[in-house]
Amino acid sequence: MKVFTNGCFDVLHVGHIRLLEFAKSCGDYLIVGINSDRSIRLIKGEDRPIIFEHERKEILESIRWVDEVIIFHEPNPLSLIKNIQPDILVKGEDWRGKRIIGSNIVKEVKLFTHQGHSTTNIIEKIKRV
Fold it and tell me: DSSP per residue over 8-64, as a string?
C-alpha cells in the first residue's frame, strides 16, 4: 500500500517525526510531499520558510520511515496526489472536520492524533528569546 502525507516540514520537530512513523505504519511505501519555498511564502508569509526546500527534502530523506520526498510548487498537493495515486492519505489531527484535499482520490484517509507541537509556535518562542 502506497501512503502519502504532506506539509511544509519547516523546522522539523518531534511531532513531524511521530507523524511520519505513523504514516509509514499505515502501508509499505511512504511518499512525503513538501511545499516549495515559494508556496510556503504564499501560505505563511514572506519570512518563511526558515529552512530551504532542498535542505528540508534532504532532512526528510534521511528519516528511516520515509521512502520518497517530492517538492510541490502549488499551494496544495492535489496535482501531486492525482499523479502518484496513493492508497492512503495521512493528515494530522488538526485536519479533523475539515475538507481534506485529495480525500476523494484515495481509498482511505487516516488522521494522526498526536497534538501539541507546532513549527509556528516554535518560531514564535524563538522570537521572544
Answer: ---S--HHHHHHHHHHHHTSSEEEEEEE-HHHHHHHH-TT--SS-HHHHHHHHHTST
What is the DSSP code (8-state) at residue 75? S
Whether pTM exceeds 0.85: yes
Q: Starting from the edge strand earliest in sequence, which strands make up the sheet with 29-35, in order? A: 68-72, 29-35, 2-7, 88-92, 108-112
Q: How far apart are CA 58 and CA 73, in angstroms?
A: 17
Question: Using 50, 70 and 90 to split pLDDT, how confident is the model at 107?
Answer: very high
pLDDT, one tens digit per residue, over 17-54 is 999 999 999 999 999 999 999 999 999 899 889 999 99
